[in-house]
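Hi support team,

I've been running sequence recovery on a batch of backbones for a student project. Most finish fine, but this one hangs at about 90% for roughly twenty minutes before it completes. I'm not sure whether the input is malformed or the queue is just slow. I've pasted the structure tokens below so you can try to reproduce it. Let me know if you need the job ID as well.

Thanks,
M.K.
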């Protein structure tokens, strides 16, 4: 599937797929919070308008994954809302979506990429570590009550 999947930037007609894919995994793991609902309902205002991007993994006409790059500051991009359809998991789709966010961060001039997660998402955490993310203390201002993992990728010390 890796070769058959195209990574594409935001298109308005894919808006519902962003919400659908993320709701599916968040509900599956019982991690859906009010802050998620707001972001999934308003991606244009909360992700795109501040200068972020949403990427989609397309297998033909099917949207099989998505991931967002959200500006936190002029030098920090958050990797958020990584979702891959169960039929496309373990095929490199999540990695390619993360790589698109990291490339976006580099082009934006960011010095690091951050993310929050939950310890139960073991496959995602393995992927993040394989991409060079390192565990760090969870910030006090994290808006997610279910988040118990915080990771940082220092772009200055990671490979381009």
């Amino acid at each position: 599937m890796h070769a058959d999947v195209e990574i594409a930037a935001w298109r308005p007609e894919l808006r519902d797929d962003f919400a659908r894919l993320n709701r599916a995994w968040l509900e599956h793991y019982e991690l859906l919070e009010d802050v998620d609902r707001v972001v999934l309902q308003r991606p244009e205002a909360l992700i795109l308008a501040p200068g972020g991007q949403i990427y989609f993994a397309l297998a033909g006409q099917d949207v099989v994954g998505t991931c967002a790059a959200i500006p936190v500051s002029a030098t920090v991009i958050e990797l958020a809302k990584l979702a891959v359809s169960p039929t496309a998991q373990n095929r490199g789709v999540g990695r390619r979506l993360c790589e698109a966010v990291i490339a976006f961060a580099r082009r934006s001039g960011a010095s690091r990429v951050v993310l929050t997660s939950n310890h139960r998402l073991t496959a995602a955490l393995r992927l993040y570590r394989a991409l060079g993310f390192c565990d760090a203390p969870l910030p006090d201002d994290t808006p997610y009550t279910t988040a118990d993992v915080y990771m940082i990728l220092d772009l200055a010390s990671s490979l381009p």
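--
Follow-up from support: It reproduced on our side and the slowdown came from queue contention, not your input. The radius of gyration is 14 Å. No action needed from you.
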